[in-house]
Amino acid sequence: MCGIVGILGKNPVAPLLVDALKRLEYRGYDSAGIATLENGQLIRLRAEGKLVSLKNKLTKRSLHGTIGIGHTRWATHGAPIKRNAHPHMTEKLAIVHNGIIENFLELRTALQHKGYILETDTDTEVIAYLITDTLYTGKTPLEAVQYSLSRLKGAFTFALMFAGEEDLLIAARRGPPLAVGYGEGEMYLGSDATAFASFTNKVSYLEDGDLAVLTRNSVTLFDENAKQVRRHKKKSAGGILLISKGNYRHFMQKEMFEQPESVSHTLARYLDCARSVLRPQKVDWSAVTRLSFASCGTAYYSTLIAKYWFESLAGLTVENDVASEFRYRNPPLSAGTLPLFVSQSGETADTLASLRYCKKKGMKTGAIVNAVESSIMREADIVFPTLAGPEISVASTKTFTSQLAVLASLAVAAGKTRGVIDKKREDALIGALIEIPRYISEVLKLEPSIESLCREFLRANHMLYIGRGTSYPIALEGALKLKELSYLHAEGYAAGELKHGPIALIDEKIPIIVIAPYDHWFEKTVSNVREAAARGGRIVLITDKRGAVATALIAQATIMMPEVPDIVAPIVYAIPVQLIAYHTAVLLGTDVDQPRNLAKSVTVE
Ligand code: M6R
Question: Catalytic annotation on 358?
């Protein structure tokens, strides 16, 4: 995740900005930069790679300004090179930004038509020029930001500093968190309170939609309707806690809401999103004849979805195993097989042992891993990083959607190399993948309605999740999430299997969550839903507009999803099942981030 900091100080702020950025390092980043004002002039320093490179630059060129902003960038739009590093600047302002501007291409084109020359691949620069353009019409910085906000779509947060304004920082939150720190004649901004923990522990968190105007002696906050508001000021534990939840209630909630950005970051590694093309591959897919996946838990479900993709898009035979079974089965491994291991932690004992089994058999192994420098990452021959950033909550959320983003991108690449999909289909699939962050942002807005729906699950003893095709593993994942977080009993089934046993469980007390995008499995799923409804089951349908119309009479509740292309449906439909598990658990009062008996990294058999 990108990290934002801002300081209105009494002394030169450059070293303090670097210190604050250091405290945000845990979020992951690939370049960094700071900007200050000297005699009203904007000056910045940026560097690729770790903060030490930026620090080295500072030893050669000291900055004296007492106001500044800083950023650690986790690339989403454009490569992690200096040109794309923040702060971005125009004649009038400097900006640091976290999140995604969904309509940036459209705005970029409009700005270029007005004669602005945009030099980076980022969506951030578009915000900078949009506000600058408005400033040229004579508006004040606050008016220009308010006006520009109304034209931006997406989930994002930014902080701004203006040329000639030595006592002004403006920040806005439309998604990722932002904290304000209160000092004595000094003020701070940070992606979380950890950033400024060594300067102050008085903090307030912006609510979603807030805009903050900071001077050294005041903080004025406005809500999304531009109404002046107050936000609770509290003492932060940022000095003790290295990673903070911001104003989310749990890490899990924070991580669910990070998904538009985390998936975007993942996709940027595998696709050149600006040109809508695949990036070069580490695997020669024409030499692969069979894929053999071994993983555990949620990671295993990601491979079940991948099976549909690799079979249909690349014509590859795919085998899926839970790693605890694979490692003791003595599975034969033919030439042409690529064993692939998916793991968030990269330390799961069974997955690691399965990888070592394959290596011992002389196989070349691949791994899709999140934790950098983990054992699986170090030992696999080919590594596909998921790049979802640190995940603290025991429940996998953002790492699951990033695993899926990697797997989908690889399946398209395999299909292309193996000549199974033509250029037109490849373009359509890539176009669909690029849209995932936008769909996820849209679905996250359903949180309040999903929360109220969850109240009725509290009376249930059991719940069923069903789906067909790529929605079947999402049903399994939904049931797993509910079990692990709320301790309610839940099972996931292929909808077609209902009548082969589980239908006996159905009575009027059992909620049945149906994962049913309007895809080519939809009609079949609906037939199974009718069978369940006829036996009194309480049907909760997760579908889109067309699906809802077709099932109006059988569903007691519907979670209305955006219409999405088939390939992205499992990634987007993962969000409501995460939200259901989360809110049911919160309502039941369980320990959401650290459910009983579970560990984030399972290093024992
Ligand atoms: O670290 P890994 O991805 O290898 O972990 C595998 C499972 O333990 C994990 O996916 C687990 O099922 C999830 N934390 C559940 O939310």
Answer: no
